[in-house]
Design goal:
The chain has a domain at 1-72. It has 5 helices and 4 strands, in the order βββαβαααα. Helix 1 (29-38) crosses helix 2. The N and C termini lie far apart (109 Å). The mean pLDDT is 76. By secondary structure, the chain is α+β, with helices and mostly antiparallel strands. 52% of the residues lie in helices and 8% in strands.
Amino acid sequence: MMANASQRIIKKYANRRLYDTQDSRYITQDKIKEYVFSGISFRVVEDKTGADVTRAVLLHVILEEEIMGVPLFTEEALRSIILFSGSGMRSSFSGFLEQMLPVLLQNQLQEPPFMAGMPGQDRIRDQFATLQGMLLGNSFQEYVNSSVKMMEDVNREIMASASRMMQPPAGGEEAETPPPPPKRAAPPRRRRKKGG
């Protein structure tokens, strides 16, 4: 993938060191995390081949967080991700995450309208974010549960529709034969005269 002009290029060397070409210095994975949190666009490329390894570096940042910090994923969630990655549902799962994560982030980061122009806005925003985080814990789980239920309902409906389409028409294997057309009335018979 080509980098755009405003995108930082980070070179990854064989010894796993990362070099920020814009700042002309070596950086750590913590700096990569900082770039993500700051919304700085970047691309990581291998020094020798020029291959884009951004995804691998981002996955490594997540892995380090999982090992060293407070895990984002439960063991069960990780098992489910592995199951999805090896199934035909891979693209559906990926699409679901790509659509849901921005919505969750937007809800998490959105400033409440009542705070616009208030004195001490930064302090209030921080307190609100803390409170929102505490409250969002349960609502996030409820949101996930309702999303899962909705997907299960949709899947059940698709399976039921497919099952109905595969069933033969009511009354057996063959469709009902239409009734025969009505018979025409026979022309009236003429009577013969006697004796003539």
